[in-house]
Amino acid sequence: MITEGGLIVSQVSRDLGINENSLYKRKKDYLEDQHNAFPGKGNMKEEEEELRRVKKELSRVTMERDILKKAIGYFTKVQE
Predict the structure, then answer these.
(1) C-alpha 54: how far from its chain's center?
(2) Cα–Cα distance measured from residue 69 to residue 21, given in angstroms and rounded to the nearest whole number
(3) Taking the domains of the chain in order of start, what are their residue ranges?
(4) What does pLDDT average to over the chain?
(5) Would you give the DSSP letter of residue 43?
(6) Are 56 and 44 contacting, i.e. CB atoms less than 8 angstroms apart?
(7) Residue 42: CA atoms inside 13 Å, Cβ hemisphere, count?
(8) Separation of alpha carbons 23 and 54, rounded Å
(9) Model-level pTM?
(10) How far apart are alpha carbons 66 and 58 in whole angstroms?
(11) Which tens digits make up the pLDDT trace of 58-74?
């Protein structure tokens, strides 16, 4: 309505009952990255998805490292 319809933000915000600042932010997001501005439905931008995947992998690797540290401690005590 704003970018393609040529309407002004204040009018659209009144018509839809949405905060004007929210529409300005959405407009800015859209103008910066039109394809990924509003992924919605649980979809994330590529960068956010990659960050989520890396954090998940880091968590798994950290857990594996901690298990190995405990195993080394256990086997060291058993041999003594």
Answers:
(1) 12
(2) 51
(3) 1-38, 43-80
(4) 85
(5) -
(6) no
(7) 0
(8) 32
(9) 0.47
(10) 12
(11) 999 999 999 999 999 88
